[in-house]
C-alpha cells in the first residue's frame, strides 16, 4: 500500500471493486531485477498484468516481453517493444498463430515436444526455439502442473529434431513454480539444463541460452527473500553447473514485477452465520474468484486484507465472493481473521493484487462487470 494509492482512493472514490496500480512500484521492481541480475535479460510476463501503462513503462525501461498469444505480442509492440524483444513463450500454439507472430518479426519460440517443433518449422522457418523442461515446484505457493514441459531426457531429442528441421536449437527453459519461496529452487533445474547442453554439444549442437522462468515472489502475508538473495543463489548454481561456460540467461518475472504494486478496493456485501450458535461468520465481498481473485483457489494465495476496523478485536471468518456459484469461496479451510466490528458497506483493501487479477476477471460472470483497473 502506497500513499499514492491511498490518496487516489480517497479523492476519486471509484464505484465498485477496482484495482489500483502504482507505476512507481513497478519501476522500483524492474530496477531491482536489473541491478541484481545485470547479465540477465528481463522478459516481463505480460499475462501477469497487461495494462498498457505497465507495458509502456517497462518498454521504456528496456524490458523484453514474454507473450502467450498473438494478442499479447501486439500489446507489447504497441507499448514500444520491437520484435527482437519479444518471446512467444507458450508451448501450446496454433500453427497459424506461430505464422502470425513470425510475420510480425518474432523469432523466439518455446516448445516442449516434437509436434510443436514441427509446427514452428513449417510456420517460422529458421526461427530460434528453446525447450521447456519439467522441474520440481517444491517451495512454491502456486506450483505449476505438468501441463507444460517435458522430461529433461526428452528435451535432448526435441532440440535435436528442431536442428534437423532447420531451426536454431537455442536453449532450455523451466519454471520453478509461482511465488517460489526457496532461493535454491533453481539449482536442480540448472543441473538438468547443463546436462542437456553437454549432451547436445556432443552431437554438434551448441545451445546458447537458459530461460530461468519466473517464480520470483511478491510479499503477501509472509515475508519473502529479496531479489538479491535469488540472484546470488542463481549465480552460484550457474557457476556450479556450467563452470566457466555460463550461457546467456533470461528471466520472466510477472508476479514479482507487479504483484506488490496493486491494491484492490472492495466492499462488504453481507455478514451472516449459518446457524445461531455458529462461532464463524461468513463475510461476503463484492469481489470473488470470478472477479479477479482466482488465485485463492485451494487457498494457495492468501492476500493481506486491511480495513478501517483493524484496531478492533478480530475473529475467524469464512470469506466469500458475491456470485451464485458455490465455488466462489475464497478462504474456508483456513478461516481468515477479520474485525468483529466489520459490517455491511465497509470498505476492505486487498493488498498484493497487482498480478493475475484483472486478467482473471475478463468475463462478466453473473453480470458483474470485469474488474476495473486504474494505473497511476
From TrEMBL:
Swiss-Prot/TrEMBL keywords: Lyase, Pyridoxal phosphate
GO MF, one annotated term: ornithine decarboxylase activity
Reactions mediated catalytically: L-ornithine + H(+) = putrescine + CO2
Protein's name according to its UniProt entry: ornithine decarboxylase
Listed PROSITE patterns: ODR_DC_2_1 (PS00878), ODR_DC_2_2 (PS00879)
Orn/DAP/Arg decarboxylase 2 N-terminal domain mapped to chain residues: 25-258
Organism the protein comes from: Prosthecomicrobium pneumaticum
Pfam families, per database record: Orn_Arg_deC_N
Amino acid at each position: 500500500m502506497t500513499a499514492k494509492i491511498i490518496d487516489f482512493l480517497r479523492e476519486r472514490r471509484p464505484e465498485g471493486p477496482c484495482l489500483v496500480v502504482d507505476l512507481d512500484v513497478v519501476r522500483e521492481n524492474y530496477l531491482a531485477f536489473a541491478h541484481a541480475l545485470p547479465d540477465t535479460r528481463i522478459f516481463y510476463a505480460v499475462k501477469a498484468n497487461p495494462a498498457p501503462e505497465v507495458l509502456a513503462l517497462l518498454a521504456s525501461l528496456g524490458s523484453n516481453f514474454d507473450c502467450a498469444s498473438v494478442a499479447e505480442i501486439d500489446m507489447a509492440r504497441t507499448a514500444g517493444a520491437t520484435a527482437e524483444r519479444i518471446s512467444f513463450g507458450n508451448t501450446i500454439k496454433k500453427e497459424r498463430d506461430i505464422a502470425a507472430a513470425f510475420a510480425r518479426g518474432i523469432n523466439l519460440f518455446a516448445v516442449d515436444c516434437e509436434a510443436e517443433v514441427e509446427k514452428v518449422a513449417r510456420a517460422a522457418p529458421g526461427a530460434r526455439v528453446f525447450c521447456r523442461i519439467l522441474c520440481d515446484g517444491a517451495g512454491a505457493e502456486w506450483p505449476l502442473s505438468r501441463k507444460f514441459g517435458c522430461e529433461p531426457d526428452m528435451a535432448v531429442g526435441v532440440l535435436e529434431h528442431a536442428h534437423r528441421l532447420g531451426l536454431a536449437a537455442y536453449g532450455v527453459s523451466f519454471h520453478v513454480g509461482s511465488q517460489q519461496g526457496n532461493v535454491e529452487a533453481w539449482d536442480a533445474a540448472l543441473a538438468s539444463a547443463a546436462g542437456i547442453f553437454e549432451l547436445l554439444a556432443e552431437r554438434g549442437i551448441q545451445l546458447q541460452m537458459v530461460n530461468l522462468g519466473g517464480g520470483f515472489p511478491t510479499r503477501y502475508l509472509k515475508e519473502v527473500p529479496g531479489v538479491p538473495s535469488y540472484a546470488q543463489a542463481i549465480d552460484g548454481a550457474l557457476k556450479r553447473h556450467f563452470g566457466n561456460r555460463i550461457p546467456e540467461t533470461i528471466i520472466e518475472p510477472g508476479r514479482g514485477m507487479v504483484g506488490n504494486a496493486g491494491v484492490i478496493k472492495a466492499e462488504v456485501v453481507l455478514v451472516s452465520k449459518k446457524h445461531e450458535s455458529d462461532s464463524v461468520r461468513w463475510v461476503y465481498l463484492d469481489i470473488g474468484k470470478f472477479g479477479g481473485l482466482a488465485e485463492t483457489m485451494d487457498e494457495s494465495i492468501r492476500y493481506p486484507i486491511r480495513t478501517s476496523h483493524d484496531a478492533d478485536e478480530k475473529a475467524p471468518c469464512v470469506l466469500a465472493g458475491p456470485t451464485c456459484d458455490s465455488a466462489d469461496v475464497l478462504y474456508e479451510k483456513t478461516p481468515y481473521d477479520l474485525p468483529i466490528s466489520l459490517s455491511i458497506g465497509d470498505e476492505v483493501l486487498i493488498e498484493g493484487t497487482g498480478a493475475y487479477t484483472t486478467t482473471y476477471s475478463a468475463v462478466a460472470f453473473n453480470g458483474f462487470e470485469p474488474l476495473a483497473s486504474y494505473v497511476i
